[in-house]
Design brief:
By secondary structure, chain A is an alpha+beta fold. In chain A, 22% of the residues lie in helices and 39% in strands. Chain A is built from three helices and eight strands.
Chain lengths: 140, 140, 140, 140
Protein backbone atom coordinates (compact mmCIF):
# COMPACT_ATOMS: atom_id res chain seq x y z
CA UNK A 1 0.00 0.00 0.00
CA UNK A 2 1.19 3.48 -0.81
CA UNK A 3 1.51 5.82 2.16
CA UNK A 4 2.54 9.44 2.23
CA UNK A 5 4.61 10.52 5.23
CA UNK A 6 2.60 13.13 7.11
CA UNK A 7 5.10 14.34 9.69
CA UNK A 8 8.80 14.53 10.37
CA UNK A 9 9.20 11.22 12.23
CA UNK A 10 7.22 9.41 9.51
CA UNK A 11 9.32 11.05 6.82
CA UNK A 12 12.54 10.00 8.53
CA UNK A 13 11.27 6.46 8.93
CA UNK A 14 10.27 6.48 5.25
CA UNK A 15 13.72 7.68 4.17
CA UNK A 16 15.49 5.20 6.42
CA UNK A 17 13.64 2.35 4.73
CA UNK A 18 15.30 3.24 1.41
CA UNK A 19 18.65 1.44 1.45
CA UNK A 20 20.53 3.97 -0.71
CA UNK A 21 19.25 6.90 1.37
CA UNK A 22 20.16 5.04 4.53
CA UNK A 23 23.64 4.21 3.22
CA UNK A 24 24.23 7.93 2.67
CA UNK A 25 22.82 8.71 6.14
CA UNK A 26 20.17 11.00 4.70
CA UNK A 27 18.02 12.70 7.30
CA UNK A 28 14.83 14.74 6.99
CA UNK A 29 15.23 18.01 8.89
CA UNK A 30 11.98 19.74 8.01
CA UNK A 31 8.72 18.84 6.30
CA UNK A 32 6.04 21.35 5.38
CA UNK A 33 3.42 21.81 2.70
CA UNK A 34 5.16 21.28 -0.66
CA UNK A 35 8.55 21.63 1.03
CA UNK A 36 11.26 19.47 2.53
CA UNK A 37 14.72 20.00 3.97
CA UNK A 38 17.13 17.07 4.12
CA UNK A 39 20.81 16.64 4.92
CA UNK A 40 23.68 14.19 4.77
CA UNK A 41 26.66 14.30 7.13
CA UNK A 42 30.16 14.46 5.70
CA UNK A 43 31.38 10.91 5.37
CA UNK A 44 34.34 9.13 3.84
CA UNK A 45 31.91 7.01 1.83
CA UNK A 46 30.68 9.88 -0.30
CA UNK A 47 34.02 11.52 -1.05
CA UNK A 48 34.46 12.00 -4.78
CA UNK A 49 38.03 13.31 -4.81
CA UNK A 50 40.39 11.72 -2.29
CA UNK A 51 43.05 14.39 -2.88
CA UNK A 52 40.78 17.19 -1.72
CA UNK A 53 38.17 15.35 0.34
CA UNK A 54 35.41 16.96 -1.69
CA UNK A 55 32.09 15.10 -1.76
CA UNK A 56 31.07 13.41 -5.03
CA UNK A 57 28.54 15.44 -6.99
CA UNK A 58 26.52 12.26 -7.33
CA UNK A 59 25.91 12.21 -3.59
CA UNK A 60 24.72 15.82 -3.64
CA UNK A 61 22.44 14.99 -6.56
CA UNK A 62 21.05 11.88 -4.86
CA UNK A 63 20.23 14.03 -1.82
CA UNK A 64 18.51 16.70 -3.93
CA UNK A 65 16.61 14.07 -5.92
CA UNK A 66 15.32 12.42 -2.74
CA UNK A 67 14.49 15.76 -1.14
CA UNK A 68 12.59 16.79 -4.29
CA UNK A 69 10.60 13.56 -4.13
CA UNK A 70 9.68 14.22 -0.54
CA UNK A 71 8.56 17.76 -1.41
CA UNK A 72 6.30 16.31 -4.11
CA UNK A 73 4.74 13.92 -1.58
CA UNK A 74 4.26 16.92 0.71
CA UNK A 75 2.19 18.75 -1.91
CA UNK A 76 -1.50 18.77 -0.91
CA UNK A 77 -2.66 17.67 -4.38
CA UNK A 78 -0.40 14.62 -4.57
CA UNK A 79 -1.75 11.32 -3.30
CA UNK A 80 -0.28 8.77 -5.68
CA UNK A 81 3.10 7.13 -6.11
CA UNK A 82 5.52 9.16 -8.19
CA UNK A 83 8.88 8.75 -9.88
CA UNK A 84 11.57 11.15 -11.03
CA UNK A 85 11.06 11.85 -14.72
CA UNK A 86 14.04 14.12 -15.13
CA UNK A 87 16.27 16.49 -13.31
CA UNK A 88 18.84 19.06 -14.30
CA UNK A 89 21.58 19.79 -11.83
CA UNK A 90 23.89 22.80 -11.90
CA UNK A 91 27.01 22.53 -9.79
CA UNK A 92 28.24 25.90 -8.59
CA UNK A 93 31.24 25.03 -6.47
CA UNK A 94 32.81 22.08 -4.62
CA UNK A 95 31.34 21.50 -1.17
CA UNK A 96 33.69 22.28 1.71
CA UNK A 97 35.28 19.06 3.00
CA UNK A 98 34.15 18.08 6.49
CA UNK A 99 30.80 19.86 6.30
CA UNK A 100 27.36 18.32 6.02
CA UNK A 101 25.24 19.03 2.95
CA UNK A 102 21.70 20.34 3.23
CA UNK A 103 19.10 20.39 0.46
CA UNK A 104 15.93 22.47 0.42
CA UNK A 105 13.25 21.49 -2.07
CA UNK A 106 9.96 23.07 -3.07
CA UNK A 107 7.29 21.50 -5.24
CA UNK A 108 6.08 24.69 -6.91
CA UNK A 109 3.58 23.29 -9.40
CA UNK A 110 1.49 20.19 -9.92
CA UNK A 111 -0.56 19.26 -12.97
CA UNK A 112 -2.69 16.15 -13.41
CA UNK A 113 0.31 14.01 -14.32
CA UNK A 114 3.49 15.97 -13.56
CA UNK A 115 4.98 17.66 -10.48
CA UNK A 116 7.59 20.41 -10.84
CA UNK A 117 10.21 20.88 -8.14
CA UNK A 118 13.31 22.94 -7.52
CA UNK A 119 15.99 22.45 -4.91
CA UNK A 120 19.16 24.09 -3.64
CA UNK A 121 22.03 22.37 -1.86
CA UNK A 122 24.58 24.07 0.36
CA UNK A 123 27.14 23.29 3.02
CA UNK A 124 27.67 25.41 6.14
CA UNK A 125 28.19 28.48 3.96
CA UNK A 126 24.51 28.82 3.18
CA UNK A 127 24.97 32.08 1.29
CA UNK A 128 26.84 30.33 -1.51
CA UNK A 129 24.89 27.32 -2.84
CA UNK A 130 26.83 24.23 -3.87
CA UNK A 131 24.28 23.10 -6.44
CA UNK A 132 20.74 23.69 -7.66
CA UNK A 133 18.31 21.40 -9.40
CA UNK A 134 15.12 21.61 -11.45
CA UNK A 135 13.20 18.35 -11.53
CA UNK A 136 9.94 16.89 -12.79
CA UNK A 137 8.19 13.85 -11.37
CA UNK A 138 5.52 11.75 -13.02
CA UNK A 139 2.51 11.14 -10.82
CA UNK A 140 0.89 7.71 -10.60
CA UNK B 1 49.74 16.21 -10.00
CA UNK B 2 46.96 15.69 -12.45
CA UNK B 3 47.12 12.47 -14.45
CA UNK B 4 44.81 11.22 -17.14
CA UNK B 5 44.19 7.46 -17.20
CA UNK B 6 45.49 6.17 -20.53
CA UNK B 7 44.28 2.58 -20.48
CA UNK B 8 41.70 0.33 -18.92
CA UNK B 9 43.74 -0.81 -15.87
CA UNK B 10 44.74 2.80 -15.12
CA UNK B 11 41.13 3.90 -15.46
CA UNK B 12 39.94 1.21 -13.07
CA UNK B 13 42.63 2.14 -10.58
CA UNK B 14 41.62 5.80 -10.95
CA UNK B 15 37.96 5.00 -10.31
CA UNK B 16 38.77 2.75 -7.36
CA UNK B 17 40.62 5.62 -5.68
CA UNK B 18 37.37 7.63 -5.57
CA UNK B 19 35.60 6.51 -2.38
CA UNK B 20 32.05 7.08 -3.63
CA UNK B 21 32.76 5.21 -6.88
CA UNK B 22 34.39 2.42 -4.93
CA UNK B 23 31.45 2.22 -2.48
CA UNK B 24 29.12 1.69 -5.44
CA UNK B 25 31.53 -0.90 -6.93
CA UNK B 26 31.86 1.07 -10.15
CA UNK B 27 34.00 -0.64 -12.77
CA UNK B 28 35.39 0.62 -16.07
CA UNK B 29 34.57 -1.89 -18.82
CA UNK B 30 35.88 -0.06 -21.86
CA UNK B 31 37.93 3.04 -22.57
CA UNK B 32 38.42 4.51 -26.03
CA UNK B 33 38.95 7.93 -27.60
CA UNK B 34 36.23 10.21 -26.17
CA UNK B 35 34.30 7.18 -24.93
CA UNK B 36 33.91 5.11 -21.79
CA UNK B 37 31.72 2.26 -20.63
CA UNK B 38 31.25 1.66 -16.91
CA UNK B 39 29.02 -0.55 -14.80
CA UNK B 40 27.82 -1.19 -11.26
CA UNK B 41 26.64 -4.57 -10.03
CA UNK B 42 23.22 -4.89 -8.45
CA UNK B 43 23.67 -4.40 -4.72
CA UNK B 44 21.47 -3.97 -1.68
CA UNK B 45 23.28 -0.72 -0.91
CA UNK B 46 21.93 1.09 -3.96
CA UNK B 47 18.32 -0.04 -3.78
CA UNK B 48 15.99 2.93 -3.84
CA UNK B 49 12.70 1.15 -3.28
CA UNK B 50 12.79 -1.76 -0.86
CA UNK B 51 9.32 -2.93 -1.89
CA UNK B 52 10.39 -3.54 -5.48
CA UNK B 53 14.16 -3.87 -5.17
CA UNK B 54 14.59 -1.18 -7.86
CA UNK B 55 17.89 0.70 -7.80
CA UNK B 56 17.85 4.35 -6.69
CA UNK B 57 17.95 6.77 -9.62
CA UNK B 58 20.73 8.59 -7.79
CA UNK B 59 22.99 5.58 -8.17
CA UNK B 60 22.30 5.41 -11.90
CA UNK B 61 23.00 9.13 -12.17
CA UNK B 62 26.23 8.87 -10.17
CA UNK B 63 27.38 6.13 -12.54
CA UNK B 64 26.51 8.18 -15.63
CA UNK B 65 28.15 11.31 -14.17
CA UNK B 66 31.38 9.40 -13.45
CA UNK B 67 31.32 7.68 -16.84
CA UNK B 68 30.81 11.06 -18.55
CA UNK B 69 33.81 12.45 -16.67
CA UNK B 70 35.95 9.56 -17.83
CA UNK B 71 34.84 10.10 -21.44
CA UNK B 72 35.90 13.75 -21.14
CA UNK B 73 39.34 12.70 -19.90
CA UNK B 74 39.52 10.28 -22.84
CA UNK B 75 39.02 13.10 -25.34
CA UNK B 76 42.30 13.84 -27.15
CA UNK B 77 42.01 17.61 -26.63
CA UNK B 78 41.52 17.42 -22.86
CA UNK B 79 44.59 17.56 -20.67
CA UNK B 80 43.45 19.53 -17.65
CA UNK B 81 41.38 18.78 -14.56
CA UNK B 82 37.66 19.11 -15.11
CA UNK B 83 34.48 19.22 -13.07
CA UNK B 84 30.82 18.57 -13.84
CA UNK B 85 29.11 21.89 -14.57
CA UNK B 86 25.66 20.49 -15.12
CA UNK B 87 23.80 17.45 -16.20
CA UNK B 88 20.25 16.67 -17.17
CA UNK B 89 19.05 13.17 -16.59
CA UNK B 90 15.93 11.62 -18.12
CA UNK B 91 14.68 8.46 -16.46
CA UNK B 92 12.85 6.20 -18.88
CA UNK B 93 11.97 3.20 -16.76
CA UNK B 94 12.93 1.49 -13.49
CA UNK B 95 15.95 -0.80 -13.80
CA UNK B 96 15.20 -4.50 -13.47
CA UNK B 97 16.02 -5.69 -9.93
CA UNK B 98 18.96 -8.05 -9.75
CA UNK B 99 20.66 -6.78 -12.89
CA UNK B 100 23.83 -4.73 -13.17
CA UNK B 101 23.66 -1.25 -14.70
CA UNK B 102 25.92 -0.21 -17.55
CA UNK B 103 26.55 3.34 -18.75
CA UNK B 104 28.04 4.32 -22.09
CA UNK B 105 29.31 7.89 -22.43
CA UNK B 106 30.64 9.87 -25.36
CA UNK B 107 32.33 13.26 -25.19
CA UNK B 108 31.06 14.61 -28.51
CA UNK B 109 32.38 18.15 -28.38
CA UNK B 110 35.08 20.15 -26.65
CA UNK B 111 35.59 23.89 -26.69
CA UNK B 112 38.35 25.85 -24.97
CA UNK B 113 36.57 25.77 -21.62
CA UNK B 114 33.66 23.33 -21.86
CA UNK B 115 33.26 19.65 -22.73
CA UNK B 116 29.89 18.26 -23.88
CA UNK B 117 28.99 14.66 -23.13
CA UNK B 118 26.02 12.35 -23.46
CA UNK B 119 25.46 8.98 -21.85
CA UNK B 120 22.93 6.17 -21.81
CA UNK B 121 22.35 3.70 -19.00
CA UNK B 122 20.72 0.30 -19.33
CA UNK B 123 20.37 -2.99 -17.53
CA UNK B 124 20.56 -6.40 -19.26
CA UNK B 125 17.80 -5.32 -21.62
CA UNK B 126 20.08 -3.10 -23.66
CA UNK B 127 17.41 -2.30 -26.23
CA UNK B 128 15.37 -0.30 -23.70
CA UNK B 129 17.53 2.32 -21.93
CA UNK B 130 16.92 3.00 -18.26
CA UNK B 131 18.12 6.61 -18.39
CA UNK B 132 19.97 9.09 -20.57
CA UNK B 133 21.98 12.13 -19.67
CA UNK B 134 23.34 15.27 -21.30
CA UNK B 135 26.20 16.84 -19.37
CA UNK B 136 28.71 19.66 -19.60
CA UNK B 137 32.04 19.79 -17.81
CA UNK B 138 34.21 22.83 -17.21
CA UNK B 139 37.83 22.35 -18.19
CA UNK B 140 40.64 23.59 -15.95
CA UNK C 1 -9.64 16.70 -34.99
CA UNK C 2 -6.11 15.62 -34.36
CA UNK C 3 -4.18 14.43 -37.40
CA UNK C 4 -0.65 13.15 -37.63
CA UNK C 5 1.28 14.13 -40.78
CA UNK C 6 2.10 10.91 -42.64
CA UNK C 7 4.42 12.15 -45.34
CA UNK C 8 6.72 15.03 -46.23
CA UNK C 9 4.16 17.25 -48.02
CA UNK C 10 1.69 16.77 -45.16
CA UNK C 11 4.38 17.59 -42.63
CA UNK C 12 5.33 20.76 -44.47
CA UNK C 13 1.69 21.80 -44.70
CA UNK C 14 1.32 21.07 -40.98
CA UNK C 15 4.36 23.19 -40.10
CA UNK C 16 3.25 26.01 -42.38
CA UNK C 17 -0.05 26.23 -40.52
CA UNK C 18 1.83 27.13 -37.32
CA UNK C 19 2.33 30.92 -37.47
CA UNK C 20 5.59 30.99 -35.49
CA UNK C 21 7.10 28.19 -37.58
CA UNK C 22 5.96 29.95 -40.74
CA UNK C 23 7.39 33.28 -39.58
CA UNK C 24 10.78 31.61 -39.17
CA UNK C 25 10.40 29.91 -42.58
CA UNK C 26 10.78 26.45 -41.06
CA UNK C 27 10.77 23.65 -43.60
CA UNK C 28 10.58 19.90 -43.18
CA UNK C 29 13.37 18.25 -45.19
CA UNK C 30 12.90 14.63 -44.20
CA UNK C 31 10.38 12.56 -42.29
CA UNK C 32 10.90 8.93 -41.30
CA UNK C 33 9.86 6.61 -38.48
CA UNK C 34 10.63 8.43 -35.21
CA UNK C 35 12.80 10.93 -37.07
CA UNK C 36 12.56 14.34 -38.68
CA UNK C 37 14.93 16.81 -40.28
CA UNK C 38 13.95 20.46 -40.48
CA UNK C 39 15.71 23.67 -41.46
CA UNK C 40 15.43 27.44 -41.40
CA UNK C 41 17.13 29.71 -43.90
CA UNK C 42 19.38 32.50 -42.66
CA UNK C 43 17.24 35.57 -42.29
CA UNK C 44 17.60 39.06 -40.87
CA UNK C 45 14.56 38.39 -38.67
CA UNK C 46 16.29 35.77 -36.58
CA UNK C 47 19.61 37.54 -36.04
CA UNK C 48 20.46 37.71 -32.36
CA UNK C 49 23.60 39.81 -32.53
CA UNK C 50 23.57 42.60 -35.13
CA UNK C 51 27.32 43.20 -34.75
CA UNK C 52 28.20 39.69 -35.87
CA UNK C 53 25.08 38.61 -37.76
CA UNK C 54 24.87 35.48 -35.61
CA UNK C 55 21.42 33.90 -35.33
CA UNK C 56 19.61 34.14 -31.96
CA UNK C 57 19.87 30.95 -29.92
CA UNK C 58 16.13 31.19 -29.40
CA UNK C 59 15.54 30.63 -33.11
CA UNK C 60 17.77 27.55 -33.10
CA UNK C 61 15.92 26.26 -30.05
CA UNK C 62 12.50 26.91 -31.59
CA UNK C 63 13.60 24.91 -34.65
CA UNK C 64 14.87 22.01 -32.52
CA UNK C 65 11.72 22.05 -30.36
CA UNK C 66 9.48 21.89 -33.43
CA UNK C 67 11.62 19.23 -35.09
CA UNK C 68 11.52 17.17 -31.87
CA UNK C 69 7.72 17.44 -31.82
CA UNK C 70 7.53 16.21 -35.40
CA UNK C 71 9.81 13.26 -34.57
CA UNK C 72 7.44 12.36 -31.71
CA UNK C 73 4.46 12.41 -34.09
CA UNK C 74 6.48 10.20 -36.44
CA UNK C 75 6.91 7.53 -33.76
CA UNK C 76 4.72 4.51 -34.57
CA UNK C 77 3.32 4.29 -31.02
CA UNK C 78 2.19 7.92 -30.85
CA UNK C 79 -1.34 8.71 -31.97
CA UNK C 80 -2.42 11.44 -29.58
CA UNK C 81 -1.79 15.15 -29.26
CA UNK C 82 1.40 15.99 -27.39
CA UNK C 83 3.11 19.00 -25.87
CA UNK C 84 6.69 19.82 -24.93
CA UNK C 85 7.16 19.10 -21.23
CA UNK C 86 10.75 20.18 -21.03
CA UNK C 87 13.90 20.56 -23.03
CA UNK C 88 17.52 21.16 -22.23
CA UNK C 89 19.58 22.90 -24.87
CA UNK C 90 23.37 23.01 -24.98
CA UNK C 91 24.86 25.64 -27.25
CA UNK C 92 28.26 24.62 -28.59
CA UNK C 93 29.19 27.50 -30.85
CA UNK C 94 27.63 30.45 -32.68
CA UNK C 95 26.13 29.52 -36.06
CA UNK C 96 27.99 30.89 -39.06
CA UNK C 97 26.24 34.03 -40.36
CA UNK C 98 24.65 33.58 -43.77
CA UNK C 99 24.10 29.85 -43.43
CA UNK C 100 20.85 27.97 -42.94
CA UNK C 101 20.35 25.91 -39.79
CA UNK C 102 19.31 22.28 -39.91
CA UNK C 103 17.99 20.21 -37.02
CA UNK C 104 17.83 16.43 -36.89
CA UNK C 105 15.60 14.89 -34.23
CA UNK C 106 15.01 11.32 -33.12
CA UNK C 107 12.30 10.14 -30.77
CA UNK C 108 14.26 7.33 -29.11
CA UNK C 109 11.79 6.20 -26.46
CA UNK C 110 8.08 6.34 -25.75
CA UNK C 111 6.29 5.31 -22.58
CA UNK C 112 2.56 5.40 -21.93
CA UNK C 113 2.62 9.10 -21.13
CA UNK C 114 6.01 10.52 -22.12
CA UNK C 115 8.09 10.66 -25.31
CA UNK C 116 11.87 11.18 -25.15
CA UNK C 117 13.63 12.95 -28.00
CA UNK C 118 17.08 14.26 -28.83
CA UNK C 119 18.12 16.64 -31.58
CA UNK C 120 21.23 18.20 -33.03
CA UNK C 121 21.42 21.50 -34.92
CA UNK C 122 24.17 22.50 -37.30
CA UNK C 123 24.92 24.96 -40.05
CA UNK C 124 26.78 24.06 -43.27
CA UNK C 125 29.66 22.74 -41.18
CA UNK C 126 27.84 19.59 -40.23
CA UNK C 127 30.83 18.08 -38.44
CA UNK C 128 30.67 20.69 -35.70
CA UNK C 129 27.17 20.93 -34.20
CA UNK C 130 25.83 24.34 -33.19
CA UNK C 131 23.55 23.00 -30.46
CA UNK C 132 22.04 19.82 -29.09
CA UNK C 133 18.85 19.23 -27.18
CA UNK C 134 17.27 16.59 -24.97
CA UNK C 135 13.50 16.94 -24.70
CA UNK C 136 10.49 15.19 -23.24
CA UNK C 137 6.92 15.52 -24.48
CA UNK C 138 3.75 14.61 -22.64
CA UNK C 139 1.38 12.46 -24.66
CA UNK C 140 -2.36 13.17 -24.67
CA UNK D 1 33.16 47.76 -27.92
CA UNK D 2 31.17 45.86 -25.37
CA UNK D 3 28.72 47.91 -23.32
CA UNK D 4 26.49 46.84 -20.50
CA UNK D 5 23.08 48.53 -20.32
CA UNK D 6 22.96 50.43 -17.03
CA UNK D 7 19.35 51.54 -16.92
CA UNK D 8 15.93 50.75 -18.30
CA UNK D 9 16.05 52.99 -21.40
CA UNK D 10 19.52 51.65 -22.28
CA UNK D 11 18.33 48.10 -21.80
CA UNK D 12 15.33 48.67 -24.06
CA UNK D 13 17.53 50.24 -26.70
CA UNK D 14 19.92 47.28 -26.37
CA UNK D 15 17.09 44.77 -26.81
CA UNK D 16 15.60 46.68 -29.73
CA UNK D 17 18.93 46.45 -31.57
CA UNK D 18 18.65 42.64 -31.58
CA UNK D 19 16.55 41.80 -34.65
CA UNK D 20 14.98 38.62 -33.24
CA UNK D 21 14.05 40.34 -29.97
CA UNK D 22 12.64 43.26 -31.94
CA UNK D 23 10.65 40.93 -34.23
CA UNK D 24 9.00 39.44 -31.14
CA UNK D 25 8.37 42.92 -29.70
CA UNK D 26 10.33 42.14 -26.55
CA UNK D 27 10.34 44.92 -24.00
CA UNK D 28 12.33 45.41 -20.81
CA UNK D 29 9.96 46.28 -17.96
CA UNK D 30 12.37 46.34 -15.04
CA UNK D 31 16.11 46.21 -14.51
CA UNK D 32 17.78 45.83 -11.13
CA UNK D 33 20.92 44.29 -9.70
CA UNK D 34 21.11 40.73 -11.03
CA UNK D 35 17.47 40.91 -12.10
CA UNK D 36 15.41 41.71 -15.16
CA UNK D 37 11.74 41.59 -16.13
CA UNK D 38 10.80 41.46 -19.80
CA UNK D 39 7.59 40.90 -21.73
CA UNK D 40 6.20 40.21 -25.17
CA UNK D 41 2.72 41.19 -26.26
CA UNK D 42 0.37 38.57 -27.67
CA UNK D 43 0.85 38.55 -31.40
CA UNK D 44 -0.26 36.44 -34.36
CA UNK D 45 3.40 35.98 -35.29
CA UNK D 46 4.23 33.92 -32.24
CA UNK D 47 1.20 31.64 -32.21
CA UNK D 48 2.25 28.02 -32.11
CA UNK D 49 -1.15 26.38 -32.43
CA UNK D 50 -3.58 28.11 -34.80
CA UNK D 51 -6.51 26.00 -33.54
CA UNK D 52 -6.19 27.31 -30.00
CA UNK D 53 -4.25 30.54 -30.48
CA UNK D 54 -1.70 29.40 -27.91
CA UNK D 55 1.77 30.96 -28.18
CA UNK D 56 4.63 28.75 -29.40
CA UNK D 57 6.81 27.51 -26.55
CA UNK D 58 9.81 28.64 -28.57
CA UNK D 59 8.70 32.26 -28.22
CA UNK D 60 8.35 31.89 -24.45
CA UNK D 61 11.80 30.29 -24.31
CA UNK D 62 13.37 33.01 -26.47
CA UNK D 63 11.94 35.60 -24.08
CA UNK D 64 13.25 33.78 -21.01
CA UNK D 65 16.67 33.24 -22.62
CA UNK D 66 16.97 36.94 -23.46
CA UNK D 67 15.71 37.99 -20.03
CA UNK D 68 18.23 35.65 -18.39
CA UNK D 69 21.02 37.20 -20.44
CA UNK D 70 19.99 40.66 -19.33
CA UNK D 71 19.95 39.54 -15.68
CA UNK D 72 23.50 38.25 -16.13
CA UNK D 73 24.61 41.63 -17.51
CA UNK D 74 22.91 43.26 -14.53
CA UNK D 75 25.03 41.27 -12.07
CA UNK D 76 27.65 43.54 -10.44
CA UNK D 77 30.50 41.07 -11.07
CA UNK D 78 29.86 40.71 -14.79
CA UNK D 79 31.66 43.05 -17.14
CA UNK D 80 32.43 40.89 -20.15
CA UNK D 81 30.46 39.58 -23.10
CA UNK D 82 28.58 36.37 -22.38
CA UNK D 83 26.71 33.69 -24.25
CA UNK D 84 24.08 31.14 -23.29
CA UNK D 85 25.82 27.83 -22.56
CA UNK D 86 22.70 25.88 -21.81
CA UNK D 87 19.19 26.17 -20.56
CA UNK D 88 16.56 23.77 -19.37
CA UNK D 89 12.97 24.83 -19.81
CA UNK D 90 9.97 23.25 -18.08
CA UNK D 91 6.60 24.07 -19.59
CA UNK D 92 3.84 23.95 -17.02
CA UNK D 93 0.78 24.94 -19.01
CA UNK D 94 -0.21 26.64 -22.28
CA UNK D 95 -0.27 30.43 -22.06
CA UNK D 96 -3.73 31.98 -22.25
CA UNK D 97 -4.38 33.24 -25.81
CA UNK D 98 -4.59 37.01 -26.08
CA UNK D 99 -2.42 37.73 -23.04
CA UNK D 100 1.11 39.08 -22.98
CA UNK D 101 3.89 36.95 -21.55
CA UNK D 102 6.21 38.25 -18.84
CA UNK D 103 9.51 36.71 -17.78
CA UNK D 104 11.35 37.44 -14.55
CA UNK D 105 14.99 36.39 -14.36
CA UNK D 106 17.52 36.39 -11.56
CA UNK D 107 21.25 35.76 -11.91
CA UNK D 108 21.77 34.03 -8.56
CA UNK D 109 25.41 33.01 -8.85
CA UNK D 110 28.52 33.99 -10.78
CA UNK D 111 31.85 32.20 -10.84
CA UNK D 112 34.96 33.24 -12.74
CA UNK D 113 33.68 31.78 -15.99
CA UNK D 114 30.02 30.86 -15.55
CA UNK D 115 26.84 32.72 -14.56
CA UNK D 116 23.81 30.82 -13.21
CA UNK D 117 20.32 32.19 -13.82
CA UNK D 118 16.73 31.15 -13.28
CA UNK D 119 13.58 32.61 -14.77
CA UNK D 120 9.83 32.21 -14.60
CA UNK D 121 7.35 33.11 -17.33
CA UNK D 122 3.68 33.78 -16.80
CA UNK D 123 0.72 35.39 -18.49
CA UNK D 124 -1.84 37.58 -16.69
CA UNK D 125 -2.48 34.77 -14.21
CA UNK D 126 0.77 35.36 -12.37
CA UNK D 127 -0.02 32.79 -9.68
CA UNK D 128 0.30 29.93 -12.16
CA UNK D 129 3.58 30.09 -14.11
CA UNK D 130 3.58 29.10 -17.76
CA UNK D 131 7.21 27.98 -17.80
CA UNK D 132 10.40 28.07 -15.78
CA UNK D 133 14.02 27.91 -16.86
CA UNK D 134 17.44 27.21 -15.39
CA UNK D 135 20.26 28.55 -17.51
CA UNK D 136 24.02 28.93 -17.47
CA UNK D 137 25.99 31.53 -19.41
CA UNK D 138 29.70 31.48 -20.22
CA UNK D 139 31.46 34.72 -19.40
CA UNK D 140 33.97 36.22 -21.80
Amino acid sequence: MFEIPKNLPDANEFIQRLPFSKALNMRVDELAESRAIMSVPYDLLIIGNPATGVIHGGAVTALMDTCCGLAVLAHPDVNTPMATLNLKVDYMRPANPGQSITAEAECYNVTRSVAFVRATAYDEDKARPVATTHATFTLN
